[in-house]
Amino acid sequence: MSELLNLVGLSTGVVLYAMLLAMVVRRDAHATVPRGVDPLLLSTALLGLLWNLCALPVYGLPKLGVHTSLVALTVVGFGALGFLPAVVVQSVLRGEHDRLESPARRSIAAAAFAVSATAAALHIRGAVLGLTVPSALGMQLLTYSYVVLAVPVAVVTRRQPGARRALWIAALSIFTVSALHLSQAHRDGSWPVELLGHHASIPLALAILYQDYPFALADLFLKRALTLLALITAAFLSVTSFHTSAAAGGVGGVREVGSLVVLWVATALLYPRLEAGIGWFVDTIVLRRPDYDTLVSTIAKQSRDEQDIPHLLDRACEALAPALSAQTVTWEEIASDAIAADVEPARRSADVIVPATETPQYVLRVGALTGGRRLLSDDYAALQSIGSILGRRIDAIRLGRERYARQLREQDMARLATEAELRALRSQINPHFLFNALTTIGYLIQTAPDRALETLLRLTSLLRGVLRSDGEFTTLGGELQMVESYLDIERARFEHRLSVRIDVPAAIRSVPIPPLLLQPLVENAVKHGIAPTRAGGEVVVAARVDHTSDGSQLIVVVRDSGQGATKLEMKRGRAEGVGLANIERRLSAHYGGLASLSITTARGFGTTAEVRLPVHAPTTRGVASKEHKVS
């Protein structure tokens, strides 16, 4: 087990320092403003990688039974390890200004490199003279010198930004050398001491990667390393259990072999859950990455309330930038022939198309990510889901706007058609009625001048009400005033043959209705109901408001006690006339299916016309939205 862990540890060191080297090179290659390769960070990666590459055959081959002279690799490996704390110390002393600002800092850095160079020279001397490599004196010099140098390093860096973190890095580099010295001084000790010395450089690599490249460390290494470690631990426990039971009851027993097979199968079945659990731990606890399902759900919920496309995309970018640890997330309008998604794996930026149906199209531009992070498969899956959500919402917004524009056009057309019909109705004042009214006024001038003047004033009021245009709506009270003027003129002509009754409460006279809604009905009642009857009759105009669960409804009834009509006569009259058809079209234009006109008639029983319409503001464009409440 010690040999296996030694091999795993050295391999892990190679992987970590190789990753650090790749991150340093990639960061400078993808930098927005090229700064060149950081020589100290590059040196740290190279020295750590060189130590682990040399230590792997030096300590691994003898365990496998391969005995050969590897003195040169030993000298190179220990020399690289000796310079590793010197490079780290200079990096700490350099601070955020990338230079050694004071003579004290320069002196400490020079002393560190002198110690490392001396130790390397002692290793080379030992190899040349055939002495033990690494040199014990060289290892002692490194350990004690860097422990002493840690004090002035802490003093001169105590006030610089990030001093505590920098000192931890320096302490780890010193621990790397000290632990190896400890393992060399106790070669006959236990294997944990040996492992501690050989792999003391791993915490340093982990610390640098976590400090500068946390997402790369987690995504590319930590998840897989922890999963592998957990799997090896499970296998180790199963093997240990097998050996224990075999020693107690005999090797190769059916029960022991069966138990081992069961443990191995259980380990294989447990692996997917183990991998998912470790992935959750790294993302949630170590990196504090967002839950992409929650992020997608949140953006989808926000999108449902948006009616403005730029604001929709702005809010999505604001949510995505911190979630992806991106420096910037912006959106841009693009031409339809420029659509090309840039979603290569392991990139630090991406262009995600928002798949809208119509032009213009949009693209989300994810800028460079921080912490050495790369966009991986789960990031792209979330981005593509969010892009699809935004695309569907953009299509819905455009469809809603198109629908609204079409409704406005239809309303404009309906309003123009209604106004044209209303103008035609106003111009269609019955010439016969005018002639009769003027004849009646002339007769009254001779017989009753006072009544003639009153009738003339009523005719003037009627004509003013018919011909004026105060808008698309009037009130029930205004319409009744015009109807009363008309009926007064007709009573002057018919005298005792015409009886009139108006039954409309004052509380509902403010309800808005379309103009010239009742006058044609009253005129039909007099012209077709009362006039043909020798004995005359009564015209009743009544109105009320019914309250139901669906709302309030105004009901206006115009009833006459005249001769009535058969169904055939009624059908022919409605086909030839324009008044009733005009009323029905205007009710439909203003209220849709919520308003209606019904006619009930029979020969000898008179005619009843009933108009029903809702008591609220009509939906026609340009009409006030105030509701008229009635009791």
Fold blueprint:
Layout: H1 2-29, H2 39-60, H3 71-94, H4 103-129, H5 136-156, H6 163-185, H7 191-198, H8 201-212, H9 214-249, H10 254-286, H11 292-304, H12 309-324, E1 329-334, E2 350-354, E3 361-366, H13 377-427, H14 431-447, H15 449-467, E4 474-475, H16 476-494, E5 498-503, E6 512-513, H17 519-530, E7 537-548, E8 551-560, H18 567-576, H19 579-591, E9 596-602, E10 606-614
Parallel strand pairs: 5-7
Antiparallel strand pairs: 1-3, 2-3, 4-6, 7-8, 8-10, 9-10
Helix pairs in contact: 1-2, 1-7, 1-8, 2-3, 3-4, 3-5, 3-6, 4-5, 5-6, 6-7, 6-8, 8-9, 9-10, 11-12, 11-13, 12-13, 13-19, 14-15, 15-16, 16-17
Mean pLDDT: 75
Helix-strand makeup class: alpha+beta
What fraction of residues sit in β-strands? 5-15%
Main sheet specs: 5 strands, mixed
Residue stretches low in confidence (pLDDT < 50, at least 5 long) are 28-34, 340-346, 619-631
Shape call:
rod-shaped
Helix-residue proportion? 55-70%
Total of helices: 19
Total domain count: 4
Number of strands: 10
Strand order of the largest sheet: 5-7-8-10-9
CATH architecture of the largest domain: Up-down Bundle
End-to-end separation: 93 Å
The CATH topology assignment of the largest domain is Rhopdopsin 7-helix transmembrane proteins
